[in-house]
Every structure is written in C-alpha cells, then in structure tokens.
Design brief:
There is one protein chain. Helices cover 21% and strands 25% of the residues. It is of the alpha+beta class and 349 residues long. The strands form seven sheets. A four-stranded mixed beta sheet has the order 7-11-8-9, covered by helices on one side. Strands 2-5-3 form a three-stranded mixed beta sheet, with helices on one face.
Length: 349
C-alpha cells in the first residue's frame, strides 16, 4: 500500500495539483491588485469654499467619485458653497473613492403649508410657527366667519394647503371681519334658482328654504317669490327663502297673494289710534279733611281745668255746671257751611 503512494505517477499528480493551486492564488492576487489599484493612492483635493461646480470639476480630474449633501441651509455662507468634504483634504485614498461633499443649498428646505382654512386666526398663527413659516400681512374682508382664515397668499398669489415653500418664508392671511349689518336684500324674482344662489352667495347671505311648485329640484325653475322681500335691510348671514316654478310670476298671482297674506300681512291704518290719558294723582292739599270726633272732658281734682270741644246743642236744658253754657243755634246747611266747634273752658269747683 505504501509502495503505491510513492509511485512516480502519484507523485506527479500531487506536484501538478500543487502547481495549479499556486498559480490560481497568484492570478487571484494579481487580479485584485489590478482591480483595486493596489498601491496606487491619490490625495483628496481641497475643494472647501469652492462652488459646487468648481469642486465637481476638480474631483473628476482626480479620478474620484463624489456625493453631494445639501440638507441644511446656513445663511452665513454663499449659496452652493462647499462647506466640508470627507475624507478630509490631503488624505490619501484610492482612485475611484467616493468623496462626501457638504454644500450650502440656495435657500432653506421647503415645507408644506398646514391646513389652516376656516381656522381661528390665533390657532393658524401657532401652526405656521411650528412648521417654520412667518405671518406677513393680515388682510380683512367681510365674511360671516369672524376672525377665521379665508385664504392664504404667498408672494401675492393664493396658495392651497400643502403647497411646498421655503422654510422661514412669510405668508399673508385673509381673515373674515364678520357680517355687515343692514344690508339691502337683492331682487331675486324672475331669476333661476341657480342664478339666485350665486347672487345670495356674493351678497354673503345664506340660502334658506327652496320650495319648488312641482316638488322637484330643477335649478332652472324661475323664482316667483322671496322672503325677505327685495329692498328690506338684513344682517349678512341671514337666510333668504325662495319659491320657484316653471311658470312665470305673472301666472302665479293668486299664489303670490296667498304668500303675501302669510308673510306680509297688511295693517289697517284707517282706524283711529287708541289714546291713553294719564289720570292725575291728588296732592295732600287737595285731599278732603275729615273732622275728628269730639273728646269728652274727664273729671279732675279741684282747681284744675279741662278743655273740651263745644258740643252741638240738642236740647234747651241747662247744664249741671255752675256756670251756664251759652247755647249756639244751628245754621241751615244751604246758607252757611258748618263751622268746626270751638273748645270752651269749663271750671269745676
């Protein structure tokens, strides 16, 4: 068995296999040296502070690849100025190495305008500040939405939410100033329902009930009645009810009179107005004086006197007192008013 291993044919095969393996390894390394330029290195050129166009030309001449990064804007540097490179300038790299070039962009990165339509102006200002946008002018125009954002303007042009504009840009806002008062109601009789809707919207009113005579919803029907009527004064934002038909207003006079009786009743001005007279309140001096009833004299100790009103005489009998009392005669009420009785001193011994 061992003799067969040292046979010249076996040894020849082993030598050939080793030679083949060594040749394969040598060829592999030679291919790697050729493909990777082993031992061939070039220094990274200094392109800092150049423009991006100048830097690209220098890197192409050096046989280096490049990758441009311009994610952040710095207002301290010029637009498209090279701020840094990696690897650093002067470092030896192989030919074909990718160099990362950081460039200052022309302006700030763009951001989308948030949806602030119909939002309160205070909330709209906060949302714009959060995304890095500034509020320029605030323009007011009549609208029933008081202090709500109606439109967004950028460089004088109306833009929609989501539009991409540079960060830290200024946008103008159109804000509603609230409804106007005592605005004249437009004349809608004789127009189609579609035309009436546009006129109502332009006058900043609201469309109320739309009653079609045939029960349909044809926008080409003619308006033959409206409430409030033409010429009346109302605040913006109020509703205007419409009655429409395929007939002309002249053919619907009976229907119009019925609606007038319902919505515009006539007031009879021929009746005399009701007068209200004020009854004067009597003063204290004008009130009648009611006489007080007479007070009887009470007995007291000797030497005291009591004052009593003079009684009205009813008989001719003398008084029990020692001093006779002079009787007074009554006077007829028709000739002289009754006088108030005068008090008299009575002495009791």
């Amino acid at each position: 068995m061992f003799k067969s291993l040292f046979h010249w044919k076996v040894l020849l095969n082993i030598v050939l296999a080793m030679a083949f393996f060594a040749g394969l390894v040598w060829l592999t390394f030679r291919w790697l040296e050729f493909h990777t330029n082993h031992g061939e290195e070039v220094p990274v050129p200094n392109v800092v502070n150049m423009t991006i166009h100048q830097a690209i030309k220098v890197l192409d001449d050096s046989g280096l690849e490049y990758e441009v990064d311009s994610f952040k804007y710095d207002p301290k540097f010029r637009p498209f100025q090279v701020l840094a490179v990696f690897p650093a300038p002067g470092a030896n790299v192989k030919n074909g190495r990718v160099i990362n070039v950081k460039v200052n962009p022309r302006t700030w990165a763009k951001v989308g305008i948030p949806d602030i339509i119909d939002r309160y102006k205070g909330l709209a200002f906060n949302q714009l500040n959060l995304v890095g946008l500034k509020v320029g002018d605030t323009l007011y125009e009549p609208s029933i939405q008081r202090d709500a954002v109606l439109r967004i303007l950028y460089n004088g042009t109306s833009v929609k939410p989501g539009t991409q504009i540079p960060r830290f840009s200024s946008v103008d806002l159109v804000i509603g100033s609230g409804p106007m008062r005592n605005v004249t109601i437009p004349n809608l009789v004789g127009r189609t329902v579609q035309e009436a809707r546009k006129i109502i919207a332009q006058a900043l009113f609201e469309v109320g009930i739309v009653d079609h005579e045939d029960g349909g919803k044809d926008e080409s029907d003619i308006i033959y009645y409206q409430d409030p009527e033409f010429g009346s004064l109302r605040d913006q934002g109020m509703q205007i009810d419409l009655w429409a038909s395929k007939k002309t207003p002249a053919e619907l006079q009976n229907k119009i009179r019925q609606l007038d009786d319902m919505y515009r009743p006539k007031i009879d001005t021929t009746l005399a107005p009701i007068q209200y007279n004020e009854v004067p309140t009597p003063t204290i001096e004008q009130r009648p004086v009611v006489p007080k009833p007479p007070v009887s004299a009470s007995t007291s100790t000797s030497g005291t006197t009591a004052t009593t009103p003079k009684p009205k005489p009813t008989s001719t009998q003398p008084s029990n007192t020692s001093t006779p009392v002079k009787q007074s005669t009554t006077t007829p009420p028709s000739t002289k008013p009754v006088e108030k009785p005068k008090p008299k001193k009575v002495v009791i011994e």
